């Protein structure tokens, strides 16, 4: 049987090399170096990976077990073991001759679902992939008239109760359209959810074709490397097995590099946290448009994480100079390039360097390295949060 187009993974270099980062500290070089030295003396990296709660606790009265919220540290390894489930689902799509995949995602999951989709081109014009974040009467009507329902697969990413409501509505749609029997329809449905929700069993009893349960209850910030992000990525043609392998390379470097400046995630977070502590209150992300999915996720991570510090995060795609406002001395720049492409942000980068603004330079040479970058920033955001004393938004688990 011909291999289904969704199983023809987008080509990627077989490499585990880590994309380098360069941080220009500007006027804060001395302060950042002092912060690095303090973190070194306090064995920051070792205690972080030991989930030492005293790193996070702001006072003696805080008895929170922060270790329970750090399971995402091991997510790339956990999800590598789950890849066969994703591959099985793609084979099922192949055998059913599916022509359309519709993903319904609740608001807290929509960014994770889109993280990879907006960075990759579906390799097959024969397979259409849509992401919707709600289901109302108009949506149902469009589904009925626009899609060949018997050739459509539905993926529901969200809390189990919402998933169940959506599935019931679709069951009704199939009944009135007579496209498939409810039993046949159920085989074309996949559900993504968290492990502790009791509604999962109710969904399972309805004979749903595939239920993907994440290995952890995850904060929405950490969903891209779970089923929520990886299943859509695989359907878009990305080799998620290779992407996770590269992500694990970043995990190892962030864990083994005890020297702060050599640890990509901790060095980045240490610098960012100290520079914000010194008074910078805006983070401007400069990215090529082809990284929009990753950029939107990163902007959300940083905005939610540092909101209580009054930090404003702005994503500027393709860097139109007329949209740029240096706005005094408050900005920290994060500049991503895609290797081999033109650098649309070069002019803004040079302006920021001449003005002495702190700037982080990073480059991606393959879409499959985005998993590395996600983990780099998860570590960096958690590290900066420790320095700034703002932990609840980043550590709170996703409640479903």
Give the gist of this structure:
The protein is an alpha/beta fold. Helices cover 44% and strands 14% of the residues.
Description:
By secondary structure, the protein is of the alpha/beta class. It folds into 2 domains: 21-63 and 258-395, Rossmann fold, CATH 3.40.50; 76-242, Glucose-6-phosphate isomerase like protein, domain 1 (Rossmann fold, 3-Layer(aba) Sandwich). Helix content is 44%, strand content 14%. It is built from 16 helices and 10 strands. It has helices spanning 29-41, 44-49, 75-80, 83-96, 107-117, 137-146, 160-177, 182-186, 199-205, 227-235, 240-256, 264-277, 292-306, 346-354, 370-388, 392-395; strands at residues 21-24, 100-105, 128-132, 152-157, 189-193, 210-213, 282-287, 312-317, 331-338, 359-364. It has a 5-stranded mixed beta sheet, sandwiched between helices. The chain has a 5-stranded parallel beta sheet with strand order 3-2-4-5-6, with helices on both faces. Helix 11 packs parallel to helix 15. The longest helix has 19 residues, at 370-388. The chain is globular. The two termini are 40 Å apart. Residues 1-12 have low confidence and may be disordered.
């Amino acid at each position: 049987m011909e291999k289904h187009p969704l199983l023809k993974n987008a080509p990627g270099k077989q490499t585990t090399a880590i994309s380098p980062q360069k941080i220009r500290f500007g006027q804060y070089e001395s302060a950042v170096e002092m912060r690095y030295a303090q973190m070194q003396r306090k064995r920051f990296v070792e205690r972080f990976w030991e989930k030492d709660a005293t790193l996070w606790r702001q006072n003696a009265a805080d008895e929170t077990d922060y270790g329970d919220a750090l399971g995402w540290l091991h997510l790339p390894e956990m999800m590598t073991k789950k890849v066969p489930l994703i591959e099985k689902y793609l084979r099922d799509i192949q055998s059913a001759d599916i022509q359309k995949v519709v993903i319904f995602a609740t608001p807290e999951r929509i960014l994770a679902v889109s993280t990879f989709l907006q960075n990759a081109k579906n390799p097959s014009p024969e397979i259409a992939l849509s992401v919707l974040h709600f289901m109302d009467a108009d949506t149902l009507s469009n589904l009925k008239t626009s899609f060949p329902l018997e050739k459509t697969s539905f993926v529901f990413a969200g809390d189990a109760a919402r998933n169940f409501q959506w599935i019931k509505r679709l069951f009704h749609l199939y009944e009135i359209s007579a496209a498939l029997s409810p039993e046949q329809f159920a085989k074309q449905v996949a559900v993504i959810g968290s492990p502790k929700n009791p509604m999962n069993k109710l969904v399972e009893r309805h004979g749903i074709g595939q239920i993907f349960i994440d290995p952890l209850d995850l904060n929405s910030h950490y969903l891209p490397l779970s089923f929520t992000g990886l299943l859509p990525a695989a359907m878009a043609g990305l080799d998620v097995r290779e992407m996770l392998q590269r992500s694990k390379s970043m995990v190892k470097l962030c864990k083994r590099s005890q020297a702060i400046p050599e640890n990509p995630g901790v060095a980045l977070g240490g610098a960012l946290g100290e520079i914000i502590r010194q008074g910078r209150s805006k983070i401007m992300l400069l990215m090529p448009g082809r990284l929009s999915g990753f950029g939107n996720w990163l902007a959300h991570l940083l905005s939610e994480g540092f909101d209580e510090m009054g930090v404003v995060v702005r994503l500027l795609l393709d860097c139109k100079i007329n949209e740029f406002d240096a706005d005094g001395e408050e900005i920290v720049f994060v500049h991503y390039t895609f290797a081999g492409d033109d650098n649309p942000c070069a002019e803004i980068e040079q302006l920021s360097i001449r003005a002495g603004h702190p700037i982080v330079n990073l480059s991606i040479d393959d879409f499959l390295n985005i998993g590395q970058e996600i983990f780099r920033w998860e570590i960096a955001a958690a590290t900066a949060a420790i320095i700034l004393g703002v932990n609840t938004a980043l550590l709170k688990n996703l409640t479903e």
